[in-house]
Amino acid sequence: MNRQVCLVSRPKGMPSVDNFKVTTREIPKVGKGEVLIKTLFLSVDPYMQGRIGGRASSHPPFALDQPANGDGVGRVVESSHPDFNPGDYVSGFLDWADYSLLPGSALLRFDPKEVSPAQELSVLGAAPLTGYFGLLDIGQPKEGETVVISGAAGAVGMTVGQIAKIKGCRVVGIAGSDLKADYLREVLGFDEAINYKSLHWMAMLEQACSKGVDIYFDNVGGAITDEVMKKINRHARVVLCGQISSYNLEQPDVGPRHFRQLIVKSALAKGFLVRLDYQSRFPEGRQQMHEWLHQGKIKPCETIIFGLENIPKAFLGLFTGENLGKQLVQVE
Ligand SMILES: NC(=O)c1ccc[n+]([C@@H]2O[C@H](COP(=O)([O-])OP(=O)(O)OC[C@H]3O[C@@H](n4cnc5c(N)ncnc54)[C@H](OP(=O)(O)O)[C@@H]3O)[C@@H](O)[C@H]2O)c1
Q1: What does the pLDDT average to over 68-96?
Q2: Quick check: pTM over 0.85?
């Protein structure tokens, strides 16, 4: 039988585990060109909040009473597609379920001796590639520049910081605990890391950005962004990646308006959706990230929760900062 985690009701504002239910159905039969996959790991990502709430972005909303889905990795159990054989390791858009049935054309095979199943998501998946393209394509980092990253201890933020270090930048990360800040500095080599929940974080940011901010990679928005925006330099680039601080608000948040600051600093602010804007370049990003991983320049970091039934809990933890690096759910 196939356990599936389904969305059963749409919340207003912050979801809860009660919006989901585990149901059991038959394992689907393999049709022509299709592949049956047994799930190993599933990724939970902040953008799923919109899909739960019924809003489309690069993906449609989750359908009620159907298994939710997202990035995942698994092993082929049965295949009627010529490119896949039982036992192959694959990544793709899998159901939140023990088994998924997908067309072979929607799957990517990977070698677990080259990259572990968890790293396939934490280093080569959509979240790290968001950091890769957002920083390199929009941020255009140059040696010696100061890069500030909000949400720095998450899957995207960690990637941005490590690539910025590879490019010779001074890197300042902002994250939600001392433990996360220590990890960014001591393990990943960030120059400065600030806990935005500490009393004097604004003074620490001021000190860390004594030469201003050349690139701001924004994952969170809200009060943190208001503070960083005051410090941007002339010709700064603001990479608008995410606004997680506002995803669960029922009313729009009103704060300082930043357009004047962009004008007087001749700065650029650009948003993007990685799957709509960069999907065709994923192979290039994966190849470079793979190389850096093997050179030890990118360190993988995952927080793993066990059990398919815990996927809603893992997702909700993204909004309370439970994760360090990529949040994954291990299904088998
Ligand atoms: N544009 C795109 O195509 C694209 C693609 C992927 C992701 N994104 C966005 O990029 C951002 C990061 O994604 P991710 O996958 O790397 O997630 P993540 O960082 O792994 O997880 C979310 C983190 O956000 C922080 N957070 C939660 N609520 C917050 C709040 N109110 N204020 C400040 N920080 C808060 C928490 O860390 P702390 O402990 O530090 O608070 C949490 O660990 C998200 O906004 C996401 O929507 C955009």
Answers
A1: 98
A2: yes
